[in-house]
Amino acid sequence: MCPPGCLHAVCETATRRGLLKAGFAFASAAAGLGAIAPVQAHAQATAARHSFSRVQDLTHTLFEGFPTFSGEKWFTVEKPVTWEKDKVNLHRWTLMEHTGTHMDAPLHFSKDGMSVDMIPITDLIVPLAVIDIRERAAADPDASLTPDDVKAWESRNGPLPEGACVAMNSGWHKLLDSPKFTGRDADGRNHTPGFHAETADLLIRERNVKGLAVDTLSLDPGLASGEFPVHYQWLGSGRWGVEAMAGLDDLPETGALLVVAGPKVRGATGGPSRILALV
Amino acid sequence: MCPPGCLHAVCETATRRGLLKAGFAFASAAAGLGAIAPVQAHAQATAARHSFSRVQDLTHTLFEGFPTFSGEKWFTVEKPVTWEKDKVNLHRWTLMEHTGTHMDAPLHFSKDGMSVDMIPITDLIVPLAVIDIRERAAADPDASLTPDDVKAWESRNGPLPEGACVAMNSGWHKLLDSPKFTGRDADGRNHTPGFHAETADLLIRERNVKGLAVDTLSLDPGLASGEFPVHYQWLGSGRWGVEAMAGLDDLPETGALLVVAGPKVRGATGGPSRILALV
Hints:
homodimer; 279 residues; alpha/beta; Glucose Oxidase, domain 1; 9-stranded mixed beta sheet; 7 helices; 21% helix; 22% strand; Cyclase family protein (chains A, B)
């Protein structure tokens, strides 16, 4: 059974139809979700035209030692062949899905939500709304993005676009090389900004938003670790997230199109992703 | 030292400038390649505007048991935590970089070519030319895409777009569930279509092409395994490839924009990628 505002594939047709009427839709060869096929056919007929002249890469380079939420090493590279011996280069990776710049699928924090491969590509290319809380976060790493931040953004830019991703720019994407990136204290607690639970609630109940994105390692503020109210509520509602995003400073507050090129892996709860903005 | 037509970052400035003059350019926050920074700045000023109304996912879903070039298992998923016990889902992957729908970076078949993370994102979003050899490949799995196929395409569509990716549609993307996908015979040789070495030579010397893409597991025809003339020549020239692409039948011969959302992993020779067409 789904919670209020659920976007699970089996019960989202009506909601999706609303989005499509609003003109934000693409045709898609993805997904293979029988339930939404008629909606996709509709999308093909009514799809809006989108244009861009600049691509911005919002992806950190992943490497062994990339900071992780838990402090454990989550990415390892081995070199079973070498150029010198084999005249070919080919590496083996071992990784936890939620490492580097990555996406969270609904399945990450729900019993049977969608895995990455089940999310139609049309739901991963969406209008991007960037909410800047850099000043407050610089003064307090435990700051959160509140409903008031959303309303202030809307007072400047109008209502959040239908089907958008709301991204928090806390300035943390520039701290990757600093201990501040995880903000781990002597008690093992992380001090990093994130979305306030009331904001997730507002966006689920009163807006039409597909994704949340952060430039930290967690949608929740670091101090909410263990409880994870935003993870459970947001992903549990069938929506997706992006974590450890880079390059947010050079984007407009509104007007860009976000491309969440997540790993199309069967059953994946998330995974390293190439995140782009078309501006 | 670089071969003729080399596109290595350190010696490509002149070539890139030519592409930019031709109007196909984006600004980029990627790469960090000092040598081309002035060219990127130029791109920001002159970038052409691109538009699309449809997104096509050209990515197969990756799973344990996805066919591989060598026949070995190249992708494994473990579940160190479970919803029942931990109330979170999170998997660990072990994979060889060249599994599933994936890209080949120059480093894969060269001593010191660019790794995936070194390729500017502007070089991974390019015009897509689809060359259809399905009929010939259906009759002969050892068929190859020849210079004549390129010329026939150009006689219908005009010159290959500057900076394009040339994709072979052999029909193999529909054979994933069939033994034909690898075409492995009793002697361990693969029978699959690919680019003829003379085609790679033509495209390097007489056209301005950034990438090759195939719907099989190798840029080279299966019977060229071991020799890999296209891999060595093409990747060795600093260009990239995409292998095991899906969904090619629903694309126009020309006019789409290819997005090669490769894994931004330091030093990667390639890796599973989300491949999209903007139409």
